Please model this.
Amino acid sequence: MSAEAAGIHTSAPGVATTPRGEQNHGHHGLAGAPVPAPVPSTHPDLAEILVTENALRVKITELAAAIDADYAGQEVLLVGVLKGAVMLMADLARALTISTTLEFMAVSSYGSSTSSSGVVRILKDLDRSIEGRHVLVVEDIIDSGLTLSWLMRNLSSRHPASVEVVALLRKPEALRVDLDVRYVGFDIPSAFVVGYGLDFAERYRTLPYVGTLTPEVIAAG
Ligand code: IMP
Model:
């Protein structure tokens, strides 16, 4: 995501209050408050690590166990939303024991410089029909939730047997939209985060953890 599209000036990095797991729409109570960790000296651009490598590993194992139990005996089509969901897709898919196939979509959200409008353009569509399939959308992060709302409507119109969502991260704003997210890794504060697939101007996606950037890095854009 670009600095502008990220609306970074409206969401300063740093830990604010943490939303509670009970706002998880009555589904799996997996969303937990991440425990910040010290930043390694090898990554001076980061202000704080919000979700460590180990916390990611543990959470993905938990998510996979819940998904395995819910879809036991069924085949699931995992739909990853590029590019941010690539890391989660790779780790989650390997942690699942149920039968899965993989597809990817790329979408771009039109909006003002600071927010997603919910008007979405498909940059890369699915390669095949999802009719009659159990679809599980794999998302990196839900911010306003507008992109995902649009995607859910779009996928539902293709007559799948079911469509659910697994999102690694969720910001508080997402709780304000009517969005049924079945599996959530972590509820995080409204800070702009990078790593584990998430970018700032296409950088930092390959960090193995999720963290916030220093104000200097953000200002330099
Ligand atoms: P939404 O429509 O506002 O929910 O937009 C969600 C998309 O915005 C995500 O799939 C990310 O690509 C991007 N995004 C939202 N918050 C962040 C962030 O903190 N870091 C990096 N990308 C983000």
